[in-house]
Amino acid sequence: MTEQTKFLLDESKLPQAWYNINADMPVPPQPVLHPGTLEPVTPDFLAVLFPMSLILQEISAERYIEIPEPVREVYKLWRPTPFLRARRLEMALDTPAHIYYKYEGASPVGSHKPNTAVPQAFYNKEAGTKALTTETGAGQWGSALAMACAFFGIDLEVYMVKESYHQKPYRRIMIESYGATIYPSPSNNTMYGRALLADNADAPGSLGIAISEAVEAAATSGGAKKYSLGSVLNHVLLHQTVIGQEALLQFEMADEYPDVIIGCTGGGSNFAGFTFPFIHKNLTEGKQTQVIAVEPAASPSLTKGIYTFDYGDTAQMAPVVKMHTLGHTFIPPGIHAGGLRYHGMSPQVSALVDAGHIEARAVKQLDTFAAALTFLRSEGIIPAPESTHAIKVAIDEALAAKESGQKRVIAFNLSGHGHFDMGAYESYLHGRLEDYEYPAEAVAEALQHLPDVS
Amino acid sequence: MTEQTKFLLDESKLPQAWYNINADMPVPPQPVLHPGTLEPVTPDFLAVLFPMSLILQEISAERYIEIPEPVREVYKLWRPTPFLRARRLEMALDTPAHIYYKYEGASPVGSHKPNTAVPQAFYNKEAGTKALTTETGAGQWGSALAMACAFFGIDLEVYMVKESYHQKPYRRIMIESYGATIYPSPSNNTMYGRALLADNADAPGSLGIAISEAVEAAATSGGAKKYSLGSVLNHVLLHQTVIGQEALLQFEMADEYPDVIIGCTGGGSNFAGFTFPFIHKNLTEGKQTQVIAVEPAASPSLTKGIYTFDYGDTAQMAPVVKMHTLGHTFIPPGIHAGGLRYHGMSPQVSALVDAGHIEARAVKQLDTFAAALTFLRSEGIIPAPESTHAIKVAIDEALAAKESGQKRVIAFNLSGHGHFDMGAYESYLHGRLEDYEYPAEAVAEALQHLPDVS
């Protein structure tokens, strides 16, 4: 054990540009549709929600988009992030595989989310935006955007899924500490929230509902507020590509190249951020790295959903995109990986799965926590429940390599730490954690309500 | 803002040796006394609790003690830690001062504690120890030692102050996740614990009591268990000097040298780890860096205590040392900085304060949280309540520099993140956080019970 463990990049190696996979997509992009007319949206419609600079990134075909210097200056607070060889895990598994991981939990809020929160706050500030609205599930996105808004002096209004608001108070307090205002969703702030509460005062909420409220709050503000989304959209995904670009440089330092790369997928942003720069090399340089997207068996859009047009939110206010979906009215079971509880998937990730460039696997909650314990007792870091999904498949791959006697190079993205999720670990350790079966009936029902796009 | 923000060291620059300030102490060391006889202890007495390698480090006069390779290999999971210039904080304060901080929250458990937990587990493993006992207050030390014991395959029994055990469940679960067993203290496991519970079944416990229980559990195990302490003792302090040694190299990268360095002090370990390598240069190379130890006004051993011999624990089972003490029966008020709630202080830190090489300041809880908000809204990282004490004085110094128009170079140790302490932030944000006055009467009473050392 005298070889190198940790590969650090100096801040001068921070990427100068984000990578936009639209430039290399092997299939033509599908239009984004207006939720009312189901016709292709005009920039005007999007301009109610987003500043023009982000809309242009959303539809850009440029391969590289320069990162503004003020954004790079903030990134330097924690980026480049560490890249480690998991030597102690390799020994614990007794595998000939080399296992690497990129650690995004090194950010101040403990996840990859600030990679896009910071540029979104910056571009809004540049466009004169005084206030933003957003939604958050477990709170990773809300806390990241709250930090970014504190840095750039923008007011922020967060709609947090009511169940998480009460069950995960620490993330809520974190959001408040950065100075944002937070409401449990459904709330009385919006027409949609009031309608839901009139129907059921104790409605627990969902991510789809919280998105609807945040969109409504911005869209009806008469221009006073814009809206910000933490995943799914192309401009979000491309901001995250700093992860994979750094990992490519760090693999060079390690003098290796991955045979297989793995990320967990909810809306797709940490997965895309880590893997797209490698997929770029697969598509344009003849590399043949296997790319695996790991989703929860309880919310398996890629492995059980339909690849079709659907709404991004429950109330049908967000744009309609072509993606793998379980139906916009589907509310995923209450797994602890709150960041993976979404009915849809990023259109770019969906298209690449459909075209065979990404493989998708679904894993069960109990298996992910078993993998997490193996990892944390070897490597120390307690992973977020979302990240445990990637770890589970990385360990599977390492054990398969042991079985076949192959030295495979495996890498995964450790998207965040689990210091806010110890309640989930307690349930697991004390045998109280449930495994959810695939909710086939609820999905079948939800898939009855897809928009009629001809 | 184009100058460097973050100074990273490659793992090849990880220190090869720990620095032992006993070699440079300007005053002769005071003997460690047996708690029963109040005569100087023999190694035999200490050998019941500690492996000989750690006892030899405790009394060593060697300036440098080589770090074993297996310990360095584990350190590389997160060390060297980042060193940052707080440019955004400087701008927020509009100060000509340059503010730097060393970030120990980058460890897997979020604090500096693994720096000594790992070598203590390693030396115990080498000596054949199968099981360790320890105490923990808020849980930073317990989680660090639990991780280290998981790495080296040692069983661990943690006595956690009962009030924290119930109020801070996340740290408790973290300790369990690494595989350790944890008991609320006072417990029924020890004679001392049973006696306290017989007196008051709802006794909330204290750090001094938990130390007594952990010491008793080891001392009465017939050699089956050793004991491990997370602060105060010299071998603990010297393990922490990796912090300051790295910071010295990182100051070279920044091409600056500090005018003033600041750390928070409870038992003294993070403070000593950060400052002793700089004090070495003050003592031996004519440097004149001002060194400030910051303690809570509610538990002010250095600024209000007596420099004399006292017991390290409540039940008078731990060795008696010469230190600044508020009396071993004093139980500090319930401030959120649980790691600073201790009646005594490291003998080395105490002697250096007494000899005028370290300046001590006491600060109030509300002021530390106000400073924390200023910091986190500029720099992103949410500091642990302990670390907020150092930040408060760093900001005071930066504002004094602004007042006097001096460009001072200020550095502090950010000993950990506050992701487990958001409850304290909630109380502060909602105006429910108390400020504790200096508990003069309780201290006066406790100081009646000092041992009679002639």
Automatic annotation (TrEMBL), chains A, B:
- Report any Pfam family annotated for this entry: PALP
Keywords, sorted A to Z? Amino-acid biosynthesis, Aromatic amino acid biosynthesis, Lyase, Pyridoxal phosphate, Tryptophan biosynthesis
Q: What is its EC number?
A: 4.2.1.20
Task: Determine the domain of life of the protein's source.
Answer: Bacteria
**Annotated SUPFAM superfamilies:** Tryptophan synthase beta subunit-like PLP-dependent enzymes (SSF53686)
Pathway(s) it belongs to: Amino-acid biosynthesis; L-tryptophan biosynthesis; L-tryptophan from chorismate: step 5/5
The record's GO molecular-function terms, alphabetically, read: L-serine hydro-lyase (adding indole, L-tryptophan-forming) activity; pyridoxal phosphate binding; tryptophan synthase activity
Cofactors named for this entry: pyridoxal 5'-phosphate
GO terms under cellular component: cytoplasm
Q: Which residues carry this modification: N6-(pyridoxal phosphate)lysine?
A: K113
Known partners and oligomeric status: Tetramer of two alpha and two beta chains.
Role, per record: The beta subunit is responsible for the synthesis of L-tryptophan from indole and L-serine.
What the record says about family reads: Belongs to the TrpB family.
Q: What is this protein called?
A: Tryptophan synthase beta chain
